[in-house]
Amino acid sequence: MLGARIAYSATLIAAAVFLSSCGGGGGVPRDSRAEWRDRAEAKCMASGKVRASPYVTQVSSVRGRSACGILAPLRVSAALGGRVRVSPPATIGCPMTAALDRWIHNSVQRAAMRQFRQPVVEIKQISSYSCRGRNGKTTGKLSEHSFGNALDIAGFKLADGRTITVVKGWWRGSRAEKAFLREAFAGACREFYTVLGPGSDRAHYNHFHVDLLVTNVTKSGKHYCRPQPKRGLFLAAEDDHPVSTASVKPIPFTGPPDSGPQMPAFTLGPAE
Question: How far is it, in rounded angstroms, from Cα 41 to Cα 271?
């Protein structure tokens, strides 16, 4: 066991060197790979917060141009132990996988039950890992998508089959749809370090961008969230009894609730 861990540590170091030294080009900004990225992945993988399941599987390391890549990428086809599909399946790192579970559990499902009296059963994502510059630019910094550290969420499907999209629901949806999206967005601002949505800029008119860029956390612990959620904003429930976001607090979360035999935690070893 110790020999396997030592061997894998050497593999991690070699992969990190490879990812850091890849040259830019072909429309991808030339950028460096910060050391905290690999440390965050390794810490998450060793913590047991994300467990192997039919819905979360480890795949071979992803290597792209410039500093793009994921040392221990996960293919996520569902969150919360399979109860919420991720469509299409996302390729992201361990920290994003854990944060996605927390967000859905703490905020998305609570908002759905508050507004629609039913849970979300599917998340519609339109971008996970993608080696590119921020907002598709060929100069400047790489996007967090380039490290499997971001997701773009375009819509949510409810248990009764209704789909709520960001592009329609944010500005032109029903009162309940607008309230649901704003509460989910406010919750994302607690769980993720960067959150961008409609009204932040032209690039995010149709989705929520969420990522875990640590440099966007201030010394006081504030996250970068645009547009800023309004404190105490009254939300419209289906029965027209408004509820204030001032009373919405996150639920402590350590992992998806058990619904069967305990799945093994990921080990710091090479993917099969």
Answer: 14
